[in-house]
Structures are given as structure tokens and as C-alpha cells.
Write a structure and sequence with these properties.
Blueprint lengths: L3 E6 L3 H10 L5 E7 L6 H8 L3 E3 L3 H6 L6 E4 L3 H13 L3 E4 L24 E3 L3 H17 L1 E11 L5 H5 L1 H14 L5 E9 L7 E9 L4 H16 L5 E3 L4 E3 L2 E8 L11 H24 L1
Helix pairs in contact: 1-2, 1-9, 5-7, 5-8, 5-9
């Protein structure tokens, strides 16, 4: 069967890493990369690989709407607001890797990849959300999470201009994801940029306060979720055994990147592109079925 044509909007770190991942897909055919900086490394690499490149941003898509049916937006929350409107008018499906939260939140580890023809824009929450919300969800399935707080610590070197410009959106969108997808009654998100040299791996701490603590059930749910995420992010792992204290469980996660474009320590970026590819492939299959 023919593959679904896709394009990436955003030629920065996220978009470039996603390019390398999509090249391995059995259902998606990458056709183009769209950017605004003609000198960007991402556009240069895309051109070398033979993809169409556009340096005039969303205007390039409006002028060439047939270039793809599925789009991945790896720009910024502010930019995506505009992109979403244009792509909706063009009748295109969008996987949003920014914290704009225009569409519903999706996390492949918690069954949020249902192929609903009604969706034309889905949001990948945040890197911290993709790393921690699955664990909140797992605990909530067996112990009813009343409060969940996550602390995402990433290397300062893995936080590019887009990440730094979206800090407020990160905390707000991740909190919403903890509640809407993770199932916690109340959530909170914190991000820390660590300037250590050599750079540290992405590490996430998840605190869950629960109503019905059953340590064995919670432990098993956590271990099973670790395996679920590892199916598409092999470098995802528990850093140590969960800690239990009365009605509180604390989970420690580390994410090592696959090294497609980013250094291995940039697991925060890698988990976003890996999750986006997984969701994009699910929607690509539905597009093929419908078409």
C-alpha cells in the first residue's frame, strides 16, 4: 500500500530529529520540510536528502497544498495558532509538537491514539508530559490519584530557543495533561534547566498522592507502563525503584535519546519526536483506510 505523504513545519532541532525518525516509517513518506531560516541546519539536511524545502513558512504550504496530507508542527506555541487555522482551511491533518494545545492531548502510552476521523489537530502536550503523564495514568488506574506533581529536569544544552520561549506554556499545558490525560484530580508541573557539564540525561520525578494505596498494584502498574513507553522510546527507564510513603508514591524516570540527530542526553527532545511519530503513524493508517 502507498504511504501517506507528510511534511514537517519547523527546521529546528525537533523538526530535524523528526525527519530522521520519519525516514524509518513504513506508513509515512516525508516529502518536505518548511522553515523560515534559509541557513538552518535542518533545511540544509533536508535539501541534501532530496526533500522539498520551503523557506517562507506557512506561505509555502498555502502555495503548495498538495505537498502533503499530514503535517507535523515543530515550531512554537504562538506560531502554531496561526498554522492551525491555515491547515484547517486546507483540510490537512496536524500533529502539534508545540504546547499550543489547540487540539486534544495525545499520549501513545495511555491509549490516546484512537483514530477518530473528527480530529484534524492533535497535541503532543510537552516533553515532560510525554515522560511523566503515562506514570500518573498508570497509578491512577489502580489507586485514584488526587494530586500529581512532576518535575522535569533537562540539560540546558537541550533547551533550544523554542523550549525557552515556551516555558509558561510548558507548565500550563503539562498541568492540564496531568489532569485531562493522566487522570489526577489536581496537577502541577515544574521544569528545571540544568547547566551541568557534561550534560545530564533527562530526568523526571513524579509525585502522586492517592486515595487507595495498594503498593503491590501500584508497583506493577508502574513497571508495566515502563515497558509500554519503551516500545517506542527504548531509552525510557525507571532510574530507581518507586518510593512509597503512606498515601504517596514517588517515581524516578530517566530518558536517554536514540541519537538520531540529538545527543543521547537530549531525551526530552527525543521522547517528543518518538511519540509524535507513533501518533502520526496511527493517523496515517486511518487516512489510508478512509482514502
Amino acid at each position: 500500500m502507498s504511504k501517506v505523504k507528510a511534511a514537517i513545519i519547523g527546521s529546528g532541532n525537533i523538526g530535524t530529529d523528526l525527519m530522521y525518525k520519519l525516514e524509518k516509517s513504513n506508513v509515512i513518506e516525508l516529502t518536505a520540510m518548511v522553515g523560515i531560516d534559509p541557513e538552518s541546519d535542518g533545511l540544509s539536511r533536508a535539501k541534501e536528502k532530496g526533500y522539498h524545502i520551503f523557506t517562507n513558512g506557512i506561505d509555502g504550504i498555502q502555495e503548495n497544498p498538495g505537498i502533503a496530507d499530514l503535517f507535523f508542527d515543530a515550531t512554537s506555541a504562538k506560531a502554531h495558532i496561526t498554522h492551525a487555522k491555515v491547515l484547517k482551511e486546507l483540510g490537512k491533518m496536524v500533529i502539534d509538537l508545540t504546547p499550543a494545545a489547540v487540539g486534544p492531548f495525545f499520549s501513545p502510552a495511555v491509549g490516546k491514539t484512537e483514530t477518530d476521523k473528527g480530529h484534524d489537530n492533535v497535541n503532543m502536550i510537552t516533553c515532560g508530559g510525554q515522560a511523566t503523564i503515562p506514570m500518573v495514568y498508570a497509578v491512577n488506574q489502580v489507586a485514584d490519584v488526587t494530586y500529581a506533581e512532576i518535575v522535569a529536569t533537562i540539560s540546558s544544552l537541550s533547551a533550544g530557543p523554542g523550549t525557552r520561549a515556551n516555558i509558561d506554556e510548558f507548565t500550563i499545558t503539562t498541568r492540564r495533561g496531568i489532569e485531562d490525560v493522566g487522570g489526577a484530580d489536581q496537577g502541577k508541573a515544574v521544569i528545571i534547566l540544568n547547566p551541568a557539564d557534561p550534560p545530564i540525561m533527562m530526568r523526571d520525578t513524579i509525585y502522586c498522592e492517592v486515595k487507595d494505596m495498594d503498593e503491590e498494584k501500584v508497583y506493577q502498574a508502574i513497571k508495566e507502563m515502563e515497558k509500554t513507553v519503551q516500545a517506542y522510546v527504548p531509552g525510557y527507564q525507571l532510574k530507581q525503584e518507586p518510593l512509597f510513603d503512606n498515601n504517596m508514591v514517588t517515581i524516578f524516570v530517566e530518558v536517554e535519546g536514540a541519537g538520531d540527530y540529538f545527543p543521547a542526553y537530549a531525551g526530552n527532545l527525543d521522547i517528543m519526536t518518538a511519540a509524535a511519530m507513533k501518533v502520526g503513524e496511527d493517523f496515517a493508517r486511518s487516512i489510508k483506510i478512509v482514502s
